[in-house]
Each structure stands twice: as structure tokens, then as C-alpha cells.
Description:
By secondary structure, the chain is an alpha/beta fold. Helix content is 26%, strand content 19%.
Amino acid sequence: xxxxxxxxxxxxxxxxxxxxxxNVRRLTAPNGGPFTQHGTNSYIIGRGRVAVIDPGPDDPAxxxxxxxxxxxxxxxxxxxxxTHRDHSPGAALLKAETGATLLGEGPHRLARPLALGEIxxxxxxxxxDFVPDKRLVDGERIEGDGWAxxxxxxxxxxxxxxxxxxxxSPLLFSGDHVMKWATTxxxxxxxxxxxxMASLDxxxxxxxxxxxxxxxxxxxxxxxxxxxxxxHRRMREAAIVERIARGDRRIPEIVSAIYRDTPxxxxxxxxxxxxAHIEDLVVRERLRAxxxxxxxxxxxxxA
Length: 303
């Protein structure tokens, strides 16, 4: 499909804080799976008075590991990239132990309203209980002792997704927007492909060169990887348009053709990704959707 190379080898070191430079430590939650790789990465920023980015799922053992790693320190901020259940529910547990301020873009929301009769296939993945103490806007800075983070709006995977640049460093915490182990799931109505591609463009213009993602290893040469991700998505888009031009009319046919090397257990997620691309292509008038843009819809080429 493209020349992009994903790195799936990763030592999660569950329960242990792994130093990443002088001012960042990573702890990986033991919630591995087909959509989380070896688990969710939580990051501790600073020394003494610190922030935690994405405390992960509702897992008391992982929260205890974070508290052990920060023994003798104060957790002053809990920062959330987005409200999926593998990233944000642990925030309530950690706040109960520390009294830290919860920060995020806002409560969970969809990228668009549900269509008539549409079922939200990933409804259970959203953390609808999360409410930040302070809502962050694009460009807002969070400051602590010897560190500062700048929020960067990166909707696409989730409507309220934020990345965070660590000021005066080459590091950016990319959440689930850019990961080295796999492409990001963009699944309507939770996410939107047009938003995702625009957010990639935003990151490509930034100076950070190393991304610390929500799952897996750091992304080295981040600008080059972002360009490769964008090319990969455009090639996937072209493949969808080609299949429809050849006569495929429904998403299961398209998935069977262009995801033939993907395990069938992941074809449901692939179908949502195809839907996200088609949604964008219809808006851009490159495809027609006589029955509406849904998983069960019928799609046609533009004459």
C-alpha cells in the first residue's frame, strides 16, 4: 500500500517507569490488545512537582504504579489527550489520590451527529464520565516547575483529541493521532477523516522531531513519518475510489478487496476506516452516496 514502516517490537516494562530523557518517564498500562498494542502509555513530566499525561484505563494497579514512580513528588496536573476508555478513566482514580487538576479539551463528544438509524459501533469506547477541571483550547500552555506543555488541537481519531508539545524540547506527546506501531483508527461518528488529515498537516508544520505516542515506541524523524502516514492514507483513499470504479458498491466488498492481508477479526475496524474515507470523498464530490453515507450504504463513482 505504501512505503511506510511500522515498528511493532516494544518492551512495555509493565509496572516500571522508563526514563525518556531527563524530564520524561513512561509507564505502560497492562491493557494490551488488538487496538492498544502492549498497553496505554502514561507519561510523567518533570521532577518534584509533575504532570501525568493519560493515566490510562480504570486500573487501580496501574495508578498505584504511577504513584510508586512519583514517591516523594507531587502530581499537580493530570492531562488527557482524548476521552477513549484506554486513556482517560484512570484520571478520576489518580485525582482521588492526589487532588491534581484535570485538564483536557472537554467531555467526550462525536465528530458529527448520528445519521437516522445509524448505530455507533464504538460507543462503548468513549469515556463519557470524564469532565475536566479546566478545558484547554488550541495553543494554551500548561506550566509547572521546570516544564511547560502547549496544547495542539488534533481532532480526527477523536473529536476532542489534543497533542502536547513539551516546550524547549524536540518532544511532542501525540496520543493516538500518530503512532509507530500502526495506523490510527478513524471511525465515524466518533472521528472524522477530513479532521484527521488536516491535523496531520498541522503537525507536519511543527518543529518537534520526536513523538511520544499513546501506544508503542517513540516516533523518530516524526515529520518524515507524518508525511508517510499522509501518503499512506491518500493511497488507501485512491484504492477505495478504484474499487468503486471497478464495480464494488458496498463497504464489505471494498474491505475484502483492499484489506485481504488483514486478519478478519480486524475487518470491522477496517470497515469503519473505509467509511471515514468515503465520508470525506463524498463531501469532496469524488463519490456519490445515493443511500447516505453509512456502513450499509451504496456508493457510486462520480460520472
